[in-house]
Amino acid sequence: MKKIxxxxxxxxxxxxxxxxxxxxxxxxxxxxxxxxxxxxxKVFVWDVDKGYIESGTFDGVDAIVHLAGAGVAEKRWxxxxxxxILDSRTKSSDLIIQELEKTTMKPKAFIxxxxxxxxxxxxxxxxxxxxSKQGKDFLAQVTQAWEAHVEPVEALGLRLLKxxxxxxxxxxxxxxxxxxxxxxxxxxxxxxxxKQLMSWIHIDDLCRLIIYxxxxxxxxxxxxAVASTPETNDDFTQTVAKIEKKPLILPNxxxxxxxxxxxxxxxxxLGGNRVSNQKIRDAGFDFQFEDLENALLDVLKK
Length: 302
Fold this sequence. Notes:
Elements: E1 3-7, H1 12-23, E2 27-32, E3 42-47, E4 52-53, E5 63-66, H2 79-101, E6 109-115, E7 127-128, H3 138-150, E8 159-165, E9 167-169, H4 174-184, E10 197-198, E11 200-202, H5 203-215, E12 221-225, E13 231-232, H6 233-244, H7 255-262, H8 267-270, E14 274-275, H9 278-282, H10 292-300
Parallel strand pairs: 1-2, 1-5, 2-3, 5-6, 6-8, 7-14, 8-12, 9-11
Antiparallel strand pairs: 3-4, 10-13
Helix pairs in contact: 1-5, 2-3, 4-6, 6-10
């Protein structure tokens, strides 16, 4: 039985990944600030700010899945929040690597979350792949630093995988719930022009992809984790409303209003990317959810 250690295991992706790994009879452990965890999961406590990881955390671990990081859209981007978003990714990576350096029997693989934000908040309609030019805005810089801070694991002999994740479709939270909530209240509307492209992925496909990365020992490097069919914000909003049988009667929310409300964070929803998943499909991974409506039906109507 393989033993998998997950940082950020109580988050949106970590929770579902844990469930799927347990169903496949993996032994799952979490790195957490709290000592409590789900049934069947051993929890090891860590404190990134204090540079502490509980003794024995890496004993017998075959692969680490590093998902830890403060949510980018949960709070307004004050300078303190921006620093927290950056530090939660870079410092947590540094701490894991520092502890791995002391470990005699090291894991074989290190799988790190990343984000398509690395390419910039708005790349228009051009197809973007893993070799495309990277952006210069705040989230692009954060993601570039995030990736850079996990790269030293390769010098320790671990196989490194980085998945650049798009908009994750899950009813448990994230971007979908932020779009769905006003629709359910009768106040839904596309954002800005509505033409900005959203590269998305069903949460189960994302978790299956991570498991694919664990199980395929030849797989390494960076891969985009998105479905093959990016959709505009307008189409995305219309599809959610259709599934929930709610009318969209309000005009698009203007960009200036979003900027007043959200500040710099408005770039997340006003920009867009058409991101390709060709590289991971060429590596043998098959997506179960490639059509947005089918993916949303599965998520919202379970």
